[in-house]
């Protein structure tokens, strides 16, 4: 088995313009998707993120000086809104789960394998 992260990217403004009924349908779709991941035994973790306006970006320059910026650093049309961490046999399985994610209908799902970090002695 391999761990993959499904990064859910969409335009945050889409969610603020939804009616209560639309928002309820999307929420229900996410709950059903999350339950399907659990039922399949592939769910490791997942979470919705707070809006990008709450972000703080930290960079350390080559001279060692740290800069801290309020909000997201890059202007983009889509923002990272949440993620699922799944444990599946291969990339094809991860792509299949990504295609089923409700967020794919509103933006994109980036699928990336995790790299094992060596244990600290």
Report on this structure.
- By secondary structure, this protein is α+β, with helices and mostly antiparallel strands.
- It has one domain (2-113): Alpha-Beta Plaits.
- 30% of the residues lie in helices and 35% in strands.
- It has helices spanning 12-16, 20-40, 91-100; strands at 2-10, 43-48, 56-60, 66-70, 79-88, 107-113.
- The longest helix is centred in the N-terminal third of the chain and has 21 residues, at 20-40.
Task: Write a short abstract of this structure.
Helix content is about 30%, strand content about 35%. It has helices at about 10-15, 20-40, 90-100; strands at about 1-10, 45-50, 55-60, 65-70, 80-90, 105-115. The two termini are about 25 Å apart.
Question: What would the keywords be for this entry?
Answer:
121 residues; alpha+beta; Alpha-Beta Plaits; 4-stranded antiparallel β-sheet; two-stranded antiparallel sheet; 6 strands
């Amino acid at each position: 088995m391999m761990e993959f992260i499904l990064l859910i990217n969409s335009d945050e403004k889409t969610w603020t313009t939804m009616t209560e009924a639309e928002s309820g349908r999307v929420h229900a779709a996410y709950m059903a998707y999350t339950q399907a991941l659990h039922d399949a035994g592939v769910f490791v973790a997942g979470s919705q993120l707070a809006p990008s306006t709450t972000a703080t970006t930290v960079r350390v320059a080559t001279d060692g000086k740290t800069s801290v910026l309020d909000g997201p650093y890059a202007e983009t049309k889509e923002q990272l809104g949440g993620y699922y961490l799944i444990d599946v046999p291969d990339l094809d399985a991860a792509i299949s789960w990504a295609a089923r994610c409700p967020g794919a209908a509103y933006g994109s799902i980036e699928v990336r394998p995790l790299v094992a970090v060596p244990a600290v002695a």
